[in-house]
Write a structure and sequence with these properties.
By secondary structure, the protein is an alpha+beta fold. It is about 60% helix and about 15% strand.
Amino acid sequence: MDRRGTKRWATYAAALGLAMLGYAARLALQPVFGANHAYTAFYPVVLVSAYAFGAGPAILAALVSAALGYWCFAAPAHAVKLDADSLTSLGFFAVTSSSAIYLIHGLARAVAATREAQARAETLAKAHAALFGELNERVTNHLQLVAALLQLQARDEPDAAARKALGEAAARTMLISKTHRSIAGEGGELLDFDAFARQLLEATLSARANPPLRIEFDQGGLWLSSEQATSVAIVLLECLNERLASEDPGVMRIGLRADRGIGSLRITEIERPLRPIAPRGPSLIDAMVEQLRGRFSSRSAAEGRISELTFPLEGGHGQRRVLEPTLH
């Protein structure tokens, strides 16, 4: 006999054991119940058997329980009883036991089907995640290939201006590749934007041959979804590029916050003397602000120019922990 058959017979034996346990309990209660409640102690036997062992063992437990209750405890004991009261009690026990077995067995099948469907869904989700990860890896590799081709073209370009433009395009493409790898690697989890912003700015400055710009990070703690992190990163990079275009980049202070479902990116450009804020036409920042459903503003203050982006956080997330100030 195989293991499955042995296990099945074990469930029938366990159901039979429960019926004997019900018999012992009813026998112990005989001084209290007397000739009444012949089947009361056997109802838990049927219920437990149906839940723990299935329909077949529960039916066996119900049949044995009915026989024991009818023969041993229904008055007169140890005799055939054909009166209406005895047959009605036996029939009521049979109907209620059958109904309980049917319902519990149906619920057990429904739960098993739900678990099976959940397992299939989890397997499918893992397969999709693997495919998505492979797609992200291919996109990253293709971006790196484009960056390499642009760099190769820049080396062979005789015109200095074109060579510089191709070199910058290669550096930006490589930066986009690194950014895509960092964000895509997070999957559906929230991204620690504080750490990500530091890495992103360091890579950008390195690609620009480390210009004389010092970046300071205020104390913060901002966690974003990959979609929001991408948009906020683009706004941050646009502000950085505008700052690098000035003759004296100086110092930029970056503040990242999350408070009551609102995310905030605050950029303070410390400069002396203060420059007036020039009117700004439509730009990539406007598109990102619209995508974030947020607001972007710039103003002059005592320490310099302050630009601030505020936006609602997706799902009320955003703040998980507080980072110590870091100076780059």
